[in-house]
Automatic annotation (TrEMBL):
Pfam annotation, one family: Abhydrolase_1
Name by which UniProt lists this protein: BPHL hydrolase
Residue ranges occupied by any AB hydrolase-1 domain in the UniProt entry: 26-139
Gene3D superfamilies in the record: alpha/beta hydrolase
Keyword tags: Hydrolase
InterPro entries, sorted: AB_hydrolase_1, AB_hydrolase_fold
Species lineage: Eukaryota, Metazoa, Chordata, Craniata, Vertebrata
GO MF term list: serine hydrolase activity
Organism for this UniProt entry: Glareola pratincola (Collared pratincole)
UniProt keyword Transmembrane helix present: no
Keyword check for DNA-binding: no
Amino acid sequence: TSVTSAKIQVNGVHLHYQQTGEGNHAVLLLPGMLGSGQTDFGPQLKSMNKKLFTIVAWDPRGYGQSIPPSRDFPPDFFERDAKDAVDLMQALKFKKFSLLGWSDGGITALIAAAKYPTLIHKLVVWGANASVTQEDVRIYNGIRDVSKWSEKVKKPLEEMYGHKYFAKTCEAWVDGISRFAEKSDGNICQELLPDIKCATFIIHGEKDPLVPRAHAEYIHKHIKGSR
């Protein structure tokens, strides 16, 4: 039941991941903005059923211990993360696997499930959105300045990154994700949702301060058979 921590070269970068369990069902855990396997999924790495599952938690490029490179946000950063995530699991020799993603990791998981349908077994997403509205941009700008964050949320990230990288990357994220709102429909991956064929479970927090509930309802409506 111990957790292995290692790096593997994928798409020209060294991606850090943690792995535990020996079950037949492989699961990749995808963290949210600025998150890593350890900060976002410590409890899951510890407590998920290790007889049923083989659990992998990754640090997307520029996050956690997958630095260098520094994190950037080109227009296709979600697609890049989706390809990195799938290629990581293939490099680790998993033929088929499930995705559990939250926030940005949820968006990444939606794209991966749509683009690589033969590889994805099941999908669970929470706090995800398939588009960005002007209202969302207003909410994102409210978290741009990390000095205003609560101590509880801020502390683990500051310890991992140091204040400067943390502050700079958060600002870059706000700019990067806000760019989607410049498109007429604010689209991130709306057109991909009907391509998701695997069993999909959508979770949403009634009081989620960053992602209004309409986003979860939209995803549910456009992924056939999701619940």
